Amino acid sequence: MLPGFHPDPSICRVGDDFYLITSTFEYLPGVPVHHSRDLASWSVIGHVFADRDHLSFPSSAGSAGIFAPTIRHHDGRFWVITTDINTVGDGQLLTSAASPEGPWGPPLRVPGAIGIDPDLFWDADGTCYVTWATGRADAPIMQASVDLETGDLLSEPALLSTGSGLAHPEGPHLLRRGDWYYLLLAEGGTERGHAVTVARSLAATGPFVFHPGDPILSHRSSTDPVQNTGHADLVETADGWNIVYLGVRPVGPGPGFHLNGRETFLAKVSWEDDWPVVDENLDIAPVSTSFTDDFSADRLDLRWIAPGRHPGDFTSASPRGVVIDQPSDDRYRSLLATRVRDQQWEARADVEPGDARLVLRMDEDHWVAVECRDGHAVAHATVGPFTQDLGAIPLPATRPATLALRSTLPTPGPHGGTPVADDLQFGIVTDDGFVEIARMDGRYVSTEVAGGFTGRVVGVEPTPGTGRPAVLRSFSYAGIAG
């Protein structure tokens, strides 16, 4: 439904419109707001943390920042509550807006709710409850009533649930259907054991009894092409109920390698004996992921993000394209990036030669690039503590230079063996087409190698050491049919 790095989905409905948000971790602007009317095609209409004064991060470090936001609509206003893991000890972040496009207000702190994955729920009497996961084995899921004007808790935090018995209960969402209150949880950890469980009660504060058939959704110990399914949210539609949840698409032999992070998927839900039953047999047409951006608009498209700081902090418009400044602080990198959304793809960047590089990033320790350096296009890779140039060819004399990265189906290595993950091809584009500089095994830019919670992004930054900014004239991205 939402391919590419879109984890921890939360969804709400207002009339005929659906709004969905996901975790963004270290990337800013934070928390894209997606809109749809059919639950199949989605467009980004804004970001909850679009204002750089509302959220800042101490560095570009991977898998930090925003964890598991929840979006809800109540009495004509949209509400989002989430965790900034950089400041988790200060409590949750709470913000609201009259329109999902924004502007969203300055976030309040909820200092009494220490943990991750917060949820908001309004009972019939108007009481608003915040429910969150502590991450502690002795009291995983806690709950308290909250004052939305101040962020203060109105009741002492109370233990709501210790889960169904699986590991790592988290991601709570509370909802009501008829006489029953339902507590939806993610359990089993966000890797191959991930699962969705559900419990119910006749009161929002419990006690909750778990479904005897739990988990209601899990692909653990299966051969399904989508794995790690969990962290779900339910929404009622005009003709029934649906569930959104995260999953990954691992490729290659065991343990399998997923490249684009945790993605958002959709399924139908029916009800039997007042318990939800998940039906994954939905036929959803693939979405188009291809685009070309010539940066002629007055502002950057909403697809553009950056690790650790807002793109507006280091970019500016010019008649030649978007200017990307060198980082002024070595805690950050000036990478203007977009999410990779396909298993195989190609990205091209038309740049002023001598000052730019095209980067594929998983985190600060796992990334590759084609960079302009001393009149050459150089293929570079950083994998953990190892950094290496893989090859170089002269840049053509014509301007601009077109740098290219490709992800293609893997081929056996020089000693044979089963192909794994993908091949990453580094090159430039000339009048003769794509000219390869080097290629490498894509496993080294996968979550199974890098760890963490994010997916691949691709974009452009200045070549280090030149002292000059990069000028990005145009950027194109296209999925490649496998």
UniProtKB/TrEMBL annotation:
Protein name, as recorded: Family 43 glycosylhydrolase
Organism: Microbacterium algihabitans
Gene3D superfamilies in the record: 2.60.120.200, Glycosyl hydrolase domain, family 43 (2.115.10.20)
Record keywords, A-Z: Glycosidase, Hydrolase
Annotated ranges, domain Beta-xylosidase C-terminal Concanavalin A-like: 292-460
CDD domains: GH43_XynB-like
Residues making up the signal peptide according to the UniProt record: none
Family, per entry: Belongs to the glycosyl hydrolase 43 family.
